[in-house]
Amino acid sequence: MSTDTPQGTDGEAGRTAVRLAYGGASGLVADGDGARLALFANLDRAPVQVDGVVRDALRLREALSALHAVVGSDFRYKPKDRTAWLAYQRQRQRASGTDTAKAQAEYFDWLARNDPTAWIMLDPIVSVAPDQLAFEVFSKDEGTYARLAVGLDALELSGKPAFGTTNIDFSDALFDGVQRMRSYRATRLSVGAEAVAVATEGQPEVIEKRIQVPDSWLRGFLQVQSAATLATTSFQVAPIDLYNLLRHLRLNADQKARGRALRVELVPGERPRLVLEPWEEVLETHADPYVGDRAQVVKVWGRRRLMLLRRWLPFAESVDVHLLGSGLPSFWVLRGGGFTFTLGMSGFTAANWSAAAQFDLLLPRTDGQSADLTAVLQAIEGRWSATAAELAKATKLKAEAVLRAAQEGCQQGVLMYDLAEGVYRLRPLLATPPDPARLRYRNNHERQAWDLLNTKGAVRITKENRIFGEGIELTGAVAVAADKREYRPQMLVTEDNRVRKAECTCAFYRQHKLKEGPCPHLIALRIRQAQVEADRLASRGKARASITVETRTYVRRHDRGEDVFRVSLDERRLRTWWGQRGQPLRAQNLFFNSVDDARDAYFSRVDDLEARGFLDATAG
After folding, report:
1. What is the mean pLDDT of the chain?
2. How far is it, in rounded angstroms, from Cα 469 to Cα 472?
3. Within this chain, do residues 120 and 37 fall inside the same structural domain, yes or no?
């Protein structure tokens, strides 16, 4: 009988009911002269077992602590909510003259009744494979993915491991136990349905949890992990470089209405440079030079999520960084002592619908299991992991077909891509795979937006106005046949992929503004703009004669700072901004008699900037 039950309708946020049953409470218990970290596995899933003495208990302690930080992290903006505070004050008044502990207990009882979701923390996914023990978690704000891989050679194994995937009981009590791990006493790690009998003393025979997992959380987990399968720009930094980055962030608060990106400057043959906005603090790295084929600048958003690595960083021996592009997910892989910690950052939270819509375009949408995916699953079953080349050989499929099938499997929660090792692994996220149709769209408005986009000519961009330093101002026309009307959505998409000043002529917007989320017409316009930008980027350098609208940004660093040039072609209009970053830029507007003349002038300036050694920072 399935323990994962879908709930919800198209008009509301769906949830999946998940039952978790454990044979005891996980924790650190005494084991002779040493200690045992007993992690109880989910009884409702296939048996999984591994047992062995940890060779480096401190590394395991700090890695698990970093995982716990990711699970509880929430970087969404939180407006002041005085409801809980007022309830606490009322309980204090009632409890005046009584002891404080009783008053606090009454308050927490109130919070549990009125906001039960505040107590929910989703348990990690644990996989035992022939080469490693892996833990996977996803943050509350649906923006951070983490995976800890412990090589089996980092354990002195006792007995034969049982391979498979399960959940483990990962509570605050377990976290407190992990903090008591010490290097001077042997620590045994036990994972399984019967982790250790002594841990169950005084506990119920079965600890059962019934939680409602939001479909948006499942969707975000699968999407961020699946993004690792996409082509990335990769480079290395030294652990001390990452430490310097975190130190600067810790000592300097973000400034309102100022840049908050981590800018990465990559030049082939040179060590990468990390630039912190808005201070323009340049951090020279100390690892190997960048070996890419072209110079570029990439912006990484959500840089403060890197603070989640602070406990594991002292044990890291190398740091690999994988970037998908500006404003897109990034993956940070830290290795050391047989442990590998992978942190994946989406660059946005669940509240940023604009960036999420752009992210959706990176991966194919699937409704069911294809024949190619079935073949890939058959090939990987029993071997637990395989490279893309090994899967292509085993299935007789072309490399492109294997990649599509593997991405489909990752999005459906039956496979995962281990970026650190470069292999696909068999890893069912839930006991029963989630329904792909339920996870295809975030909500009903997004479904309606895609229906409009799939209707030929229904969604058009009627005007684009690029505002240097702010973003692009869009005006669209969305024809809805059912309403027999054409709506006029407008928005300003900022350089960090957020939407400002959004409005629409539809009744939903007039009634709710953006308090209930964007209307389908705004979503459709944003997706159309992302599609157009992707097409323009793909055609760059291929057919100059067909270009009528394009914008490029170039930068060059010197001893006094950084020079910035932006050149924008808009049919017969050519606009140029130039100057030093952080200072007011000079601007020039030129109008030509023909599009061809404007295009020739545009590419003449582009070629001149590239010849003078400027870096292409168009996406950054």
Report:
1. 85
2. 10
3. yes
Alpha carbon of residue 75 to chain centroid: 12
Contact 191, 48 (CB under 8 A): yes
d(CA 221, CA 540): 32
Residue with the two structure tokens 């690999």: 320
What span, in angstroms and rounded, lies between the C-alpha atoms of 95 and 104?
9
Choose among 587, 320, 388: nearest CA to 468: 587
Q: How far apart are CA 429 and CA 170, in angstroms?
A: 16
What CA–CA distance (Å, rounded) separates 553 from 546?
20
CA–CA dist 4, 16 (Å, integer) = 6
Q: Which residue has the higher pLDDT, 526 or 89?
A: 526
Distances (CA, A) of 223 to 229, 363, 535, 606: 10, 8, 22, 36
Last residue of a domain, one of 514, 539, 564: 539
Q: Residue 104: pLDDT above 60? A: no
280 in the same domain as 198: no
Q: Which residue has the tokens 């705004």?
A: 522
Quick one: pLDDT band at residue 374, thresholds 50, 70, 90? very high
- Which residues have a Cβ under 8 Å from the Cβ of 411 and sit 6 or more positions away? 222, 223, 226, 363, 364, 366, 436, 439
Entry pTM: 0.83
Structural domain contains residue 416: no
Partners of 38 in the β-ladder: 27, 190
The verdict on 101 and 244 lying in the same domain is no
Q: Which has the higher per-residue pLDDT, 72 or 47?
A: 47
Could you tell me if residue 89 is inside a domain? yes
Q: Is residue 523 part of a domain?
A: yes
Q: How far apart are CA 536 and CA 530, in angstroms?
A: 10
Residue from 247, 242, 276, 281 nearest 262 by CA: 276
Residue 588: predicted pLDDT? 94
- Whether the pLDDT of residue 205 is over 60: the answer is yes
Reported confidence tier of residue 186, pLDDT bands at 50, 70, 90:
very high
Q: Let me know whether 486 and 511 are in one domain.
A: yes
* CATH code assigned at 264: 3.10.150.10
Categorize the per-residue pLDDT at 113 as very low, low, confident or very high, splitting at 50, 70 and 90: low
Q: Is 382 exposed, middle or buried (0-12, 13-18, 19+ CB in 10 A)?
A: exposed
Please say whether the beta carbons of 336 and 318 come within 8 A: yes
Q: Higher-confidence residue: 260 or 136?
A: 136
pLDDT tens-digit readout, 476-527? 999 999 989 999 999 998 877 778 789 999 999 999 888 888 999 999 999 9
CB proximity list for 344: less than 8 A, separation 6 or greater: 144, 145, 146, 147, 224, 225, 227, 228, 329, 330, 331, 332
Calculate the alpha carbon distances from 61 to 37, 68, 450, 566 in Å.
10, 11, 46, 49
d(CA 328, CA 355) in angstroms, rounded, equals: 8
Q: Which residues contact 93 (CB under 8 A, 6 or more apart)?
A: none
Which of 204, 220, 242 is at the close of a domain?
204
Q: Give Cβ neighbours of residue 543 (< 8 Å, ≥ 6 apart).
A: none
Do 489 and 596 fall within a single domain?
no
Res 105: pLDDT: 57
Q: Can you give the residue range of the structural domain that contains 346?
A: 230-360
CATH code for the domain in which residue 551 is found: 2.20.140.10
